[in-house]
Amino acid sequence: MNNRHTTAEKTQIRRGLISLRSYIYALNKENRDIREIQNFLDDLIQNSEAELHDVFGLNKIITAIESIQMAVNEIGFGGDVMLAFLFHAVIEKESQVAQVRKEFGDKVADYLSSFIRVSQLDTKVATLNTDNFRNLFIQASGDMRVVLLLIVKCVVMMRKIKDTPMVAQQRMISEEAAYLYAPLAHKLGLYTMKSELEDLSLKYLEHDAYYLIKDKLNETKKSRDAYIERFIAPIRDLLDAEGYKYKMKGRTKSIHSIWQKMKKQNCGFEKVYDLFAIRIILDAPLSKEQEQCWKVFSLITDKYESNLKRLRDWLTVPKSNGYESLHITVLGPEDKWVEVQIRTERMDDIAEHGLAAHWRYKGVRQDSDGIDSWLANIRNSLEHGDEKGLANSLSTSVSSKNIYVFSPKGDIYKLPEGSTVLDFAYHIHTGVGNHCIGGKIDNKNVSLRHAIHSGDTVEILTSNAQTPKAEWLNICVSPHAKSKIRSAVKEISSHQSALVREQLERRLKNRKLDWDENVINVLIHKFNFKEASEFFRYISEGKLDVSTVLEKYIEIATADTRNSDQVVPTRSAEDYVLDFDTKNNQAYNNDVLIIDRNLKGIDFQMARCCNPVYGDDVFGFVTSGNGIKIHRKNCPNAPAMRERFAYRIVDAKWAGKGGDKYPISLRVIGNDDIGIVNNITGIITKEEKIMLRSISIDSNDGLFSGILTIMVENTDILSKLIKKLRTVKGVKAVSRT
């Protein structure tokens, strides 16, 4: 490409700069000579590696000037952002920003950095049409005016490339227009630009469909115009009789909208009946806008039958982008349904030119609940000339608690702010996270602790030798990653514990010693461990010598044997006989069975019919041959046992602080919705002190009934779990079985 201006281009650039001088310096009040800017641009061009002309052969500076002119005419704002946008036509690298900062100040340089940051985003079709990419785009822009100028530039480019032979590049820009800039224009209320972008993108992407509809519209234009005149003639008479000042016009639906309706309804052009709408624009003072709009509504619905189901009241509650209008659908001549839009000139200006048109209307009401807070902030900033508010308005619309990053394939992911490479690895897949050893950002190796930022393209590096570690919990910030790490560490720890236990049992057997759980518990306490898993982990990692552990075990076991004369001999439950008061149906014995995992001398078990848990109110029942069974006092079998075998019932209570895990069953009933079971099991697996053993689901008539078997330590943990499960959307009831 030629990196020089032609004479005609130089003249066009100079005239454009002169016409825009007042807008470029509208905010900082400087009065630089246009030749100074032009000379600076010439110096940049000579020293820059960037091409002066784009892939279509268009002069980038002229395109920028035309975009600024359109932004001034259509939206009406100016300032340093205009100058930054102009320089971005030549400057494409961050390394050149320092030169602009020195010559034109921080504001221009910061805006220029925003334009460069946005231009470097990876715009693939798969990601363009996603909220995540649009949010990333807004984050990178950092200022509402940057986004507005980029939307305007897209419109200018789409107009210029209609006859280009560069079909692939034309298609690329058309996809950006359709999937990125048109939705953003819609969000900002720039309906005219939105419609133009949609129509032109359809023209370049779906050439045959576009011209089919265009030709059909041209064929029916004469009859359509005649029908509109027949429809509006009576309305015009009514409005004139009431003395209203107004404009009335028919508006044909955009080609893109017709095409979307044809696809949605799977029909041909002839089956699309609402091809046009009538727009009534009232010249009304601000204080009487709503009153006059509703009066016109009354006049029209008196004349034509209305369909109240199609009434759209955006007067009382405007759209989130500031759009205000009253839409009704009435039955016109020949029994055709016609949409009528009623609005004022102020409302029409906002509808045509977007939210920025509020700048021209001081005192416009701001109490509409339907306006999103960030759009309200933009409007307020525009009205009061608050440049700081404008700079922050759009960036704050996207939660600062989120970042958006790319995978090497171009997929975009949303993560919490402060996320690391390890967070991203677990976000992709649990297996990738478990084996993550680091990553690559911009082809540079980084550690798994490295914090990632919006716009980064992150490649994860893995190794089969890598395993999750407990300290990884301090690296990650996302709850998802932390949950997966806890589960993996727990599983690894459980496996290690089983191996170490097997090793210790084998070593004890070699020394002619039996495994004694009570001795092991004392041993764990002696080595100052709170959990058996931690004790076994230290042995597996070599931090605790196996020989030392064995010697200590023998020492404790030997001490137990020496004191065995003080130990109460184990009695059969059948020998546990109580005197019984038949009159009061209770035992005379006031002894209470103390339930403790270290209890010796009494043979007892937890009853399976009611599955007691530490903390439940319980009693003991002396069985014939199976020891004492511990039941909950509200066990379903308790009334029968008390009535028939009251003499066998023993008072019981728990000792210590628990620590063992007990199996219990929960019945869960809820709506048979997709994902509800995953939500329920997800809550359980996140709880460190609860283990899910089994789950059985049965569904019928839109409801499901599930039995969950879990292991818990006590009733406090169980009660908290039941409360959490009851908050899951769709869950109707949760109860113990």
Instruction: Let me know the CATH homologous superfamily of the largest domain.
Output: Hypothetical protein af1432
Largest sheet, in brief, is: 6 strands, mixed
Unreliable stretches covering 5 or more consecutive residues = 26-30, 356-376, 379-399, 563-590
Radius of gyration: 38 Å
Kindly state the number of beta strands: 22
Put simply, the count of helices is: 26
Structural class: alpha+beta
CATH class of the largest domain: Mainly Alpha
On the 0 to 100 scale, the average pLDDT is 79
Can you tell me the overall shape? flat
CATH fold descriptor of the largest domain: Hypothetical protein af1432
Count of the domains: 6
- Could you estimate the helical fraction of the residues in percent? 40-55%
Distance between the termini: 79 Å
Strand composition percent:
15-25%
Tell me which oligomeric state these chains represent. Answer: single chain
CATH architecture of the largest domain: Orthogonal Bundle
Q: How would you describe this structure to a colleague?
A:
By secondary structure, the protein is an alpha+beta fold. The protein folds into 6 domains: 7-207, Hypothetical protein af1432; 208-353, 2-Layer Sandwich (Beta Polymerase, domain 2), CATH 3.30.460.10; 402-486, Roll (Ubiquitin-like (UB roll)), CATH 3.10.20; 487-565, no CATH class; 573-654, no CATH class; 662-736, 2-Layer Sandwich (Alpha-Beta Plaits), CATH 3.30.70. 47% of the residues lie in helices and 16% in strands. It has 26 helices and 22 strands. Strands 1, 2, 3, 4, 5 and 6 form a 6-stranded mixed β-sheet that branches. Strands 14-18-16-17-15 form a 5-stranded mixed β-sheet. It has a 4-stranded antiparallel β-sheet with strand order 20-21-19-22, with helices on one face. β5 and β6 form a beta hairpin. The radius of gyration is 38 Å and the shape is flat. It starts with 6 loop residues before the first helix and ends with a strand. 31% of the residues are buried. The model is unreliable at 26-30, 356-376, 379-399 and 563-590 (pLDDT under 50).
